[in-house]
């Protein structure tokens, strides 16, 4: 296990750091724009890239690339929602997403306003739909960025730091602990499981709030 994992991590680390960083940024940009996030596993690419981080500087640059990629992707989604939202919703792709999900995204934004944008970064489906919905709603772009930027920073910091720390710990232990590979895998699996459970808990709580009633936050809809 140790030998196989060492070979895999070395293969990732042998990729040029600049290329790894750019690929991670592009992957997360695709994940957060134009519903591509429903099929592109951007978080998996970020985790793989983070396992090759060998210094604080590399980790910071990777985190910055991921945040910038996420913001660019969400900004593209916002712009498409502002200019092409109704057309996209009525298109074959929009129908494939399902009217129920579009309505859910709209109600979520009306109910929560800015906090809905922050939390959507951590929720399945909504993290791709909310930027489009925000663009269609008339919500100001600067206010949109003010809510989504800290969410992207927090998300990137969690994924990059956990994956980098797990890989670094494995490298330190692999020479002396024969089951170090299992520790690495366990850390990643536990992190992903906690992230999944956290998303489900937030999603369930938000569904409950939405079912309790509908409301809007006019102040949050202004530039």
Account of the 3D structure:
The protein is mostly helical and 223 residues long. It has one domain (2-221). 79% of the residues lie in helices and 0% in strands. α4 (56-90) packs across α8 (126-137). The longest helix has 35 residues, at 56-90. Mean pLDDT is 80; it is low at 215-223.
Key traits:
223 residues; mainly alpha; 10 helices
Give a summary of the structure in a few sentences.
The chain has 223 residues and is mainly alpha-helical. The protein has 10 helices and no strands.
Order of helices and strands: HHHHHHHHHH
- Shape descriptor: elongated
Strand content: under 5%
What is the number of strand segments?
0
By secondary-structure content and strand pairing, the structural class works out as mainly alpha
Helical amount among residues, as a percent range?
over 70%
How many discrete domains? Answer: 1
User: Rg to the nearest angstrom?
Assistant: 19 Å
First-last Cα distance: 55 Å
Supply the number of helical segments.
10
Main sheet summary: none
Uncertain stretches: 215-223
What is the average of the pLDDT values? 80
Topology:
Elements (H helix, E strand, L loop, with lengths): L1 H12 L3 H15 L10 H9 L5 H35 L1 H6 L1 H14 L1 H7 L5 H12 L3 H33 L6 H33 L11
Helix pairs in contact: 2-3, 2-4, 3-9, 4-8, 4-9, 6-7, 6-8, 7-8, 7-9, 9-10
